[in-house]
């Protein structure tokens, strides 16, 4: 148990930074929803355009490629190597952006279905504004990896705050110039404002990271000749990563096409539900992963497999103690939560409620998704990108099959919840497959301890979810279904459920809960 407080402390500062980032990210989402209108054709066009660069960041740079960069930078800690690696990323992604700009119409057609002519043209225009973000995200991911290996893991967590604030300001400016939620009255100037303002946010995010590097002594300098970074080794690792990305992108294309065909505004509904689903993962699991990945890489370099097992086990248990009750809350309170968050401004109240139903289904995916992501980091620390790629392919195929089956069995907007359930099954399959393979690689995954801890956490979470559902039902009968009633239900049901979970966790002697409380107390260990 001595190692748990150390890992929890390491994640605390990053969790605070990530929480602030996600709070401002919520404000950004709310500003865009209220301005462009959840359920509108304009919001769907904006979502489709913004998905292209962001999906590359999430699936390549924010996940698998970062898992490659950190181990490489741990092994080659000199500044020249990092500069050459940064140069390689810039040159490669620069070409990628140029090619993508040429094929923007085809990219939009690939990722959407049944858009009107005006909606399609708006999406293409915004896509051309947004595609340069790919290069900016690549630079940001590389610099964040440099900061991580130099003990500055929290700094990259703060950078998205600046991005969010710029986009919020853009939404405010859009309203100030008479911005509309209707495609028919959208002007070219308003389109430029949305496009430039959104990409400016990413540019400011990279600027914040550049400022953070100055305290480490690292200079962001491009090298005309990036040779010497072990390009063949990187290519071999990235080759398998490319397979993983291709599989994930194929699944995303299928899901987005099905969602955009489910009805007007359905694509934006699904995107917002997925954004909310990602919040607990980003605050809890990403903070832990960011802190543990350098130590995992160092342990793997020393061939200290017991330490690799210990780090992975701690990460899973510390994540689970927060994520299991959170998942229960999402399942029970999903539609009420999204009504409180999104039923404002130009947003359609029925679209807000539908978002909650999709979010509730995604609640089932939360724990397996986070466990799957943690397990993949074990392979990355071992410089094995082949196994995660194969497992990602399995996950993508399962998720795609689930989406297609859902679309056939439950046509219309209701199929979105079915697609989310399909993702839950896919991530569970991916987690179990990763655990089985990793067990053969490192000898053990601390299975008995993990099952014991998560079993007790599950009992506490189910009990808390039951109380939350009962209180929510009683409060809903009194307060009604509107915005105020939903707020009452969320506050009363959520508070009672959280209280019961804390009591149950103490009664069941969940050690990770005590560690968490110790870290959260002022001056805690």
Automatic annotation (TrEMBL):
Transmembrane regions? 30-49, 55-74, 86-108, 128-149, 161-180, 192-213, 234-255, 275-294, 315-333, 353-376, 388-410, 416-438, 458-476, 482-504
Any one Gene Ontology BP term: regulation of cell shape
Q: How does it sit in the membrane?
A: Multi-pass membrane protein
GO molecular function terms listed in the Swiss-Prot or TrEMBL record = lipid-linked peptidoglycan transporter activity
Main location (coarse class) = membrane
Places the protein is found: Cell membrane
User: Which PANTHER family does the protein's record reference?
Assistant: LIPID II FLIPPASE MURJ (PTHR47019:SF1)
Q: What is this protein called?
A: Murein biosynthesis integral membrane protein MurJ
The source organism is Streptosporangium carneum
């Amino acid at each position: 148990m001595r190692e748990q407080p150390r890992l929890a402390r390491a994640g605390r500062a990053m969790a605070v930074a990530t929480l602030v980032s996600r709070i401002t990210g919520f404000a950004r989402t709310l500003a865009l929803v209220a301005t462009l209108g959840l359920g509108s054709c304009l919001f769907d066009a904006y979502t489709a355009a913004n998905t292209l660069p962001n999906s590359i960041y999430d699936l390549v740079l924010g996940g698998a490629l970062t898992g490659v960069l950190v181990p490489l930078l741990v092994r080659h800690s000199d500044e020249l190597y990092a500069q050459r690696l940064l140069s390689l990323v810039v040159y490669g992604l620069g070409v990628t952006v140029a090619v993508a700009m040429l094929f923007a119409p085809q990219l939009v057609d690939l990722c959407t279905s049944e858009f009107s002519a005006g909606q399609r043209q708006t999406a293409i225009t915004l896509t051309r504004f947004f595609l340069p973000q790919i290069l900016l995200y690549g630079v940001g991911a590389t610099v964040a990896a440099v900061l991580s290996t130099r003990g500055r893991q929290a700094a990259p967590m703060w950078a998205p705050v600046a991005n969010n604030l710029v986009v919020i300001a853009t939404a405010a400016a859009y309203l100030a110039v008479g911005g509309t939620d209707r495609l028919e009255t959208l002007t070219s100037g308003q389109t430029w404002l949305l496009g430039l303002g959104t990409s400016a946010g990413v540019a400011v995010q990279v600027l914040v990271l550049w400022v953070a590097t100055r305290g480490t002594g690292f200079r962001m300098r491009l090298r005309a000749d990036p040779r010497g970074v072990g390009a063949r080794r990187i290519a071999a690792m990235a080759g398998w990563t490319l397979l993983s990305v291709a599989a994930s992108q194929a699944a995303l294309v299928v899901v987005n096409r099905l969602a955009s065909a489910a009805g007007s505004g359905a694509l934006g509904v699904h995107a917002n539900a997925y954004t909310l689903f990602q919040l607990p993962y980003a605050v809890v699991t990403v903070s832990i992963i960011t802190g543990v990945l350098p130590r995992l890489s160092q342990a793997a370099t020393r061939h200290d497999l017991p330490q690799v097992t210990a780090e992975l086990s701690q990460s899973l248990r510390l994540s689970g103690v927060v994520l299991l009750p959170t998942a229960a809350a999402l399942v029970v309170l999903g539609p009420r939560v999204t009504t409180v968050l999104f039923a404002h401004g130009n947003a359609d109240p029925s679209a807000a409620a539908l978002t909650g139903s999709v979010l509730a289904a995604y609640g089932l995916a939360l724990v397996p998704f986070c466990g799957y992501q943690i397990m993949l980091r074990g392979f990355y620390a071992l410089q094995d990108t082949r196994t995660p790629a194969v497992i990602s392919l399995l996950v993508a195929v399962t998720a795609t099959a689930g989406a297609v089956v859902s679309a056939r069995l439950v046509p219309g907007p209701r199929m979105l919840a079915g697609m989310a359930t399909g993702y839950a099954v896919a991530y569970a399959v991916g987690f179990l497959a990763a655990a089985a393979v990793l067990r053969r690689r490192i000898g053990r995954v601390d299975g008995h301890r993990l099952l014991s801890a998560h079993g007790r956490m599950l009992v506490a979470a189910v009990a808390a979810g039951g109380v939350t559902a009962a209180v929510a039902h009683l409060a809903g009968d009194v307060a009604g279904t509107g915005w105020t009633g939903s707020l009452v239900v969320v506050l009363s049901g959520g508070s009672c459920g959280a209280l019961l979970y804390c009591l149950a966790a103490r009664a069941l002697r969940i050690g990770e809960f005590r560690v968490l409380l110790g870290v959260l107390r002022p001056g805690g260990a």
